[in-house]
Amino acid sequence: MENKTQKRNGFASGIGFILAAAGSAIGLGNLWSFPYKTAKYGGAAFVFTYILSVLIIGVIVMVAELHIGRRSQANPVSAYKKVNKNVGWLGLFAVLIPFFIICYYSVLGGYTVKYAMNSFAGNAGILETFTGNAGEVIMYTAIFMILAILVVMAGVKGGIEKASKVLMPTLFFILVAVAVYSLFLGEGVSEGLNFYLNPDFSELGFDGILAAMSQAFFSLSLGMGIMVSYGSYAGKEIKVGQSISMICIFDTMVALLAGLAIFPAVYHYQAVSGATNVETGGLLLMFQTLPLVFEGMGTFGQILSFFFFAMVVIAALTSVISLLEVVTQLVIQKFHVQRKKAILVVAAICFAISIPIGISLGLVLNGDKSMLICGQNWLDFFDLVTNVVLMPLGALGACMVLGWMLDKPAKKSDMFNPMYLNETLKKDGLNLGWFGKVFAVMVKYVTPLLILVVEIFGVFDIIMPANSITGIRAFSSNGLGIVLTAYGLCVVAIAVYFMFFKKSETGNNADELLIEEKQVKAE
């Protein structure tokens, strides 16, 4: 039944898997977070540190999650249960993270749809009016959510893989075209490139190193069950090492190209218009500064705006598709419901939660702070809880499970021996060749330690934030509330697992196939 499941439900080709996984990794963070951090922390110095972080953290965690999923051919809960029933809660934890990310990411996805559709009418200066109109924000969030639902509803091979084969090359083509155009704008371009890529290790510092590690972590969609789910649909013919290399290269190229597309255009706009103090990072870069840049280019700027925001829609869409699949896969296999019903239920719940998130963000952008949680608008609150606190824990769990729990050696000393782990992984179907020995050392010792560093300093930065002007850190009760909320969700996930999931069947991909076959017969 497993082979049939792979054929019907799994990825049909290696390139399909690579593009789908790359699509999950490439998102809004590549388009506004990476360029901004690169410019802030020493340009090429940050890029070098980021690439190193991808190699020592990103690749290792990705391999671990992919193998955990592929060996189980099941959803994240069943995948971790197959290793050890007492750590199956890590799978539930890994599903919880994308569930909350969908809720706020869809709001931003709605923003991108609005800006793409409104490009020819002009997006400059519409941020406050658009975000202040709750009904319009909700409508565009719904449009974006429907686009993602339609893809996931069609299944892995018929929906996610087919969509990725079209969307990812399209995204890359548009990004290259916009970057080339930006580089030939003329005045201000050299200043933009200098701001973006000027190598300055003095600007990197410890904060820059941590930022690079965090960016590598978040950019590759680690610790949120995506690679476990996608790995479960990957057949034995898909080469793990080669696939992950391609995913990381593609993800990094998109991030670098985004900066080449954005900063030369922004600095050209500053040079031509004389504008100063424009936002060069985050949400305001995307939805406030860039519309002004495009407006300054006249009629062609409207065309450029449409293609740019269409590209951003694609990046956001491919990410939400993968997030939805993680949650939907568990619902299908655990509760034995059809895919269409499962995705509609999941999407409906996420959409309901997205409504107050969109309203809260709009209020803050318009100067109203009446709807905050722990001093943050709802979007930033959920972003801090998931991205800063929970995702590193999810990735740490994957490393610990694969590095320490896959096998119980007869000799206790072998438990600490990476070479024994390498041989165990080979027998388990993960043969990485010469890299296997390096991987065993990294997944067992080095990468978990680095993830702990990311987690500890991320939490510290929330609880003891630095003043934006003085740089002095001070205790924040709101920050403590955010951290306690995140760890409270961990406790809830563990409790729910042991009460309702540990002793019950949580399903696998073969069950999903049977559900589909019953539906076909019924029709």
Describe the structure.
- The protein is mostly helical.
- The chain is 77% helix and 0% strand.
- Helix 12 crosses helix 15 (299-335), helix 15 packs across helix 16 (339-365) and helix 18 crosses helix 19 (435-463).
- The radius of gyration is 23 Å and the shape is globular.
- The model is unreliable at 1-8 (pLDDT under 50).
Topology diagram in text:
Layout: H1 2-9, H2 14-25, H3 28-40, H4 44-72, H5 76-83, H6 89-117, H7 127-131, H8 134-153, H9 156-183, H10 189-197, H11 201-219, H12 226-232, H13 240-273, H14 282-295, H15 299-335, H16 339-365, H17 378-404, H18 418-427, H19 435-463, H20 477-501, H21 509-522
Report, as a whole number of angstroms, the end-to-end distance: 22 Å
Largest sheet: none
CATH topology: Amino acid/polyamine transporter I
Strand content range: under 5%
Which CATH top level class fits?
Mainly Alpha
What are the secondary-structure elements, in order, as H or E? Answer: HHHHHHHHHHHHHHHHHHHHH
- The helix tally amounts to 21
In CATH, the homologous superfamily goes by the name: Amino acid/polyamine transporter I
As for the number of domains, it is: 1
What gross morphology would you assign? Answer: globular
**Class inferred from helices and paired strands:** mainly alpha
Low-pLDDT stretches are 1-8
CATH architecture: Up-down Bundle
What Rg is obtained from the alpha carbons, in whole angstroms?
Answer: 23 Å
Query: Can you give the mean pLDDT?
Result: 90
Counted beta strands: 0
How helix-rich are the residues, as a percent range? over 70%
